[in-house]
Amino acid sequence: MGWMIVAAAVVVAVLAANARVVYADREISWELEAQQAKWKSELRNTEPSSCPPGDDDCEGPEGSVKFLVDASGELKIEYEFETETGVLETETQIRFRPQELIEFVDTDGNGKLSSGEWRYNTTLKDDGWRDLMCVAPAVGATIKKYTCDAVHTTLDLTFRFTLTNVPIALNITGTTPVNPAVMKVDMLLHNFPYRVSGPSRLALVTRATAKTTQEPRDDDSGSGTEEEVVAFGKVGVFAWVKKASNGNASVPIFSSPVVLKDNVGDEGEYDITFSFGADKPSHLVWDPQLGASSNPMAGITTSAAGTSVPTTSVAAAVAVAAVVALCMATLA
Q: Bridge-partner residues for 82, per DSSP?
């Protein structure tokens, strides 16, 4: 089935691994431990168009995109972007945490979790997560794909994290490819133990922590009608497709407004709730994204000439395969 974890996945028990690849002007490295994976993607452009011809002392933009997946206790996905051009420095940090699944009864008929509709909640951090299962890119491959799965210890729930050095195209009309500065996060839930005897639905509550100079904002510019985006600062985003899948059926996603919960120093903590618009789905596959709002540096490549771009497909149909885009994107 499309939602199942690839059988060839390598279980990382206590694995320490390092891999470095260079694709055009982009270099990716990663480090793995039992319950933690780190990626660093650096981009250098030593001859930018802004430099006068022949000026060897002129340095171009230097960008660093970092991702961290930590499954020790509470599942966290972190995104950090840094760039420096002359004296100008930009930094964006986002941390995304899936908090709990809420079973609710849609009494007002609006499709999403509303006041008074909560029935039961399942906290994701109490029972914890198994050691990460990661797959390294094939040796010598032009297209590099890094994948790690975080599997819950009691629920049949997996979050799959994918990072590539070329854009990943989604088989969903109205969506844009996931660029190399964004981590794709697939949420795969199977046979949730519902407790309400009658019709009920599920909502995922997420917490995002962001360190930027701007408040988060809705930003659908440049995205298709099937996507929604929350922007953090100038380059950070948590984005998601408005549909999940339940087998061969599409399930609409209803998101709550971004709610500020707390200020911790120079960071803001925000809640976003995602309601799945179907009664007691047996399977849910959904893919938020977390990372940069667009190629943050001019040199980030698309695909190599003559090279096909990988396509992701899930559950044999229209539905989604997962800012974020960081937190966000929990990311997403």
A: 64, 91
